[in-house]
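[User]
Um, tokens okay?
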Amino acid sequence: MKKAGIKQEFAELTGQEVQELMFEIFNLLAEHFDGDTTLNSLRIGNYIGLKSIYYGVPTNNKDIAATLNISPSTVSRLVTNLMQLGYIGEESHPSDGRVRLVSILQDHPEQQAFESSVREALGQGFRLKKSVLN
């Protein structure tokens, strides 16, 4: 489905359907992360994953902060936390050693399970939407 199609699908949901879908997604996320995980942690992890897995390039804290509109100090703290948990790795920029590049560690033991669970939750949300609209 194209991006515009997904936006259109969500635009057709009622407020209650959106709340139910978000409830399911947040419950799913809570199953995979401890109580110290914040929404910004998830946003940062998702952005790093998109850049490194789907676009094939690492990113840096400055790019993350600018793109997600999160303060650089918050990005630095949360990126360090994600590294300590083993979700992301760090390397020096090839032409500027002062810049640290981060990317998802694709061999993290829970990555596949988490991605499968998110896909299932989204699928449930779309099935819920279709059943309500039909």
Remarks:
- The chain has six helices and two strands.
- The mean pLDDT is 76.
- The chain has one domain: 3-133.
